[in-house]
Amino acid sequence: MSAPQSPRVRVAVVFGGRSSEHAISCVTAGSVLRVIDPDRYDVVPIGVTPKGRWVLGPSDPAQLAISDGRLPEVADEGGTVVLPSSPSSAEITVSEPGSVPRVLGEVDVVLPLLHGPYGEDGTLQGMLELAGVPYVGSGVLASAVGMDKHYMKLVLAAAGLPVCRHVLVDPGPWEPQRERVAAEVAGLGWPVFVKPARAGSSIGITKVDGPGGLEAAVLDARRHDPKVIVEEAVHGREVECGVLQGRPGGSPDTSVVGEIRVDDTHEFYDFDAKYLDEEHVSLDVPAGLPDELAGQVRSLAAQAFTTLSCEGLARVDFFLRADDSLLVNEVNTMPGFTPTSMFPMLWAATGLDYPALVNRLLTTALARPIGLR
Questions:
Q1: What is the band of 78 on the pLDDT scale with cuts at 50, 70, 90?
Q2: Pick from 64, 69, 70, 71: which is nearest to 28 by CA?
Q3: Beta bridge partners of 232
Q4: Which CATH superfamily is domain 166-232 in?
Q5: Cβ(214)–Cβ(182) under 8 Å?
Q6: What pLDDT, in 10s, does the model give residues 296-321?
Q7: 145-163+234-367 is a CATH 3.40.50.1820 domain
Q8: Which of 219, 244, 225 is nearest to 118 (CA)?
Q9: What is the DSSP letter of 103?
Q10: How confident is residue 273, by pLDDT bands cut at 50, 70 and 90?
């Protein structure tokens, strides 16, 4: 007599969202749906439309891929998905006009693959904490700080980690702070990079070579976020390291170090270079670094992860200057997650392939308590 099979873990994969990274979130979800183990996990795909409505998403990964340069989008059709709102029930329901809400069943864990505001920034994490539902990734604090490049730098610098010099453009009106910002930015030297403070995937970033281009770049960045930062241009190499939550009470685990190389076709690692141009971008995994220097990168990555109280996963990005000194550029609490993204490539080179990586993230989330920890 064969032993009874254990029930599959019910996973709600949430993707899309209201941020400018909507399409990249869809691509990430499609990649995960391709590899998640159907014998172990029962997947409920939930898409969030660009306007913020939650709907049952496509289960076919092909519908969430970039095709002929076309970026995928969650269609605003079908019933509205309602996630649990209290710890007393973990049931998902679908509500349609004129119909009794349909119960889809309870969820064991949520895999939030949202990038940017309204998903990666602590908002969704707070909702899941209130509902008492386990989820993959960092909690409210680390998600919010990691999303905000200004506060991330303040926290890292306060812990003694090296960060880039930058100038803050407050969310208030531009005119009263124009002169102050111009004077402070001049102190950084030219060129500089103007960035939305709470966006990712290099969206809204402009390289500015002189004072004449500053205002236009700031106003362009403010189309994505009223809060903007202006960073010094660091001349050096761009290297990255993946981090995974370790065992309870233990140190985080770090991957091998990778390097991004972009040729002269792109001025920097912009959106097109990241997602639409494989010919002129190289991801070197592992990076060609001496063992001692790679060890420094991994150590700093673990420190950054711990300093921000990250959980689950993160990718820590660095600038490596000619004198071998390192600067922490960003901590990404939900990094790009397609098989050709840097984060999964780093872990594959470290011995954890894509399906095993997804499984580890879900297993870690299921073992983690909800609430204060």
A1: confident
A2: 64
A3: 192
A4: ATP-grasp fold, A domain (3.30.1490.20)
A5: yes
A6: 999 999 999 999 999 999 999 999 99
A7: no
A8: 225
A9: E
A10: very low
